[in-house]
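Supplementary Text 2. Reproducibility record for the structural model of the 652-residue chain.

All settings were left at their defaults, and a single model was retained for analysis rather than an ensemble. We include the record here because the model underlies the residue-level annotations in Supplementary Table 4.
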Amino acid sequence: MLNSFLLAAGFFVLAIVLGLLRLAQSARIALIIGTLATLSGSVLSLSSGNSSGQLWSLGDIPVTWHLQAAAAWLIFWGGLAALAAVLSPSRAKNPGIWMSGAGLALLGCLGIAGLQEGIAFLIAWEFLSFGGAIMLLADGLQQDEKSGQANLYMLALLEVGAVALLLCLLLLGAHNTDFASWAGTWAGYGSAAFGIAILFIIGFGAKLGILPFYEWYPGAYGSGSGASGALLSGIVLNVAYFALGRAMLDWLPRSSATGTGILLVALGTITAILAILYAFQQEDWRRLLAFSTAENAGLAVVALGAASLFRADGLTMLSTLAWTVGLIHLGGHSLAKGSMMLSADRVAGVRGSYAIAQSRLLALAPWTLGIGALLGAMSLAAMPPTAGFAGEWYLFQTVFQDFHLSSSAARVTLALGGAGLALTAAIALATMIKVFGLGLLGREENHQAVSGRWPILGLGLLVLAYAAALPWTLGFLAQDNWPAVPAALQAMVKGPILIPLRFHFAFISPPLLLLMGLLLSLIPLTLLGWSHLRQGRKRVPVWGHGLRQIPANNAVTALAFSNALREFYSFVYRPSTNTRRSHTERNYFVRELHFDYSQAPVFGPWLFRPIVRFIQFLSDRIGLALQNGSLNAYLAYIGLLLIIIFASVFYI
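Retained model, structure tokens:
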């Protein structure tokens, strides 16, 4: 297992070098081999248990590698989506540089998953941030100022998270940066332990898109390709969730677990609701799917918060259930989101745009694209028998266990979280209907051939296989005793049936759902075939909202589809509509009519923009003092900086 990951790391480094040399095809091959080695290592870890190995030493501190079963699970399913993204035809303007960014991000994922030392962990965390930024910039799909600003916005918020993690390292690893000692050090902070938990939530939440950080998602994803989105929404998101889970369930003192769990459930629920509300209003495939990623990350954080609440009360079986549910949800999400992101690339390759508009592409494209995209959309809409349905069913059963908690605040929080999850699921269904129905169906257009559809089909079929195989694959997570309890994992499965610990509480069987769905589908297919043979194909006019004469180009736009919800939740969206007219000679002779609309972000105007203005104000004032043109002042600044550096070295 260790050799597989060392081989993967070597090929990722090779891909970085080859990409910088603009050898795109060679870098792609290196990435494929490295990803296959990663998948192989994950399978070996899940099947035979984890093992440790020392990589190097930082002074007296050994830097060790230890892959836990939860990390192997998340890396495996995220790695499958990453492999499909690398195999798909590239839409990047600079494919070599894109391969370098992907290699850097994947190398960082390996570090986050297995490194057990704080300094090396922070370096790997930066690899994730800069690897993602390099991929988005290399895509070069938008050569404008907004694209650059979106990437800088992403990096700025991610560096806020990195600073929070650096503070955690200084507080918990001042004397020993080895993770094995962090739980004991954290327990010594007493009442201040909750503050460190908030720092960890900020640090890892910046990557997960927990509010208010989800607002960098649409701009960054919208400036890149679907392949970049598949990596960022898959393996990168997964390892960030694992890192947050390790901090909350392994290091956090139990005395602070209740308050932290309540905070996590509240943040996850509100993030999921806001993200899916804004996803429903998007007109761009990538922006819609970006908000959907934040929504699913919020759902996983709700599961993590529930695990923390159960852990605080000593309910280890329920805590294991909740943590495992988060792993199940994100594993299936990686596959479904990968298929939809790659479908977005294929749509853009045909239409020349990522805009969600009727195009009848599904009828004209090969069946492989339609099946893969349909299964991905069904999973993100939590429709049976897909992976998304199994994950969200388990999540609902977990929050319904709130009556076991001793704290009234915790019970109320989980109950309200369940109500928020119900709202999220309903809007997610409408959102996926919108992106699939409007993005792939509609009036006929002339299209070219669709390429790169086999990876989409593969991921779509894996969405079904993932759910059907859950009763047998969950046992692999019992290889690790943190934080899972093997007895709890055994109680989650009974033959082909999934159970939330108690059979009389609830149960489903994804394999039987899949089998019955296939059998029941024979009924409408038989009726359709009989009707076609007897009466032939019938063509009838579409419904035109009561109009006697239907326009030839009658279509439902993305705005028309989502406008009702836009008006109902106007207190959230704060929508604006602008209409501009161009006239010839007189005002009543209109030559052109320009119409656009938008929704106001929640946190941008009230949180981020005032901070930016304050920093600009400080930089202007400090700049006047520093850049005063005095050589003596510059020498004094250099001398003071040297004194600070020497003092910090002696202190350490």
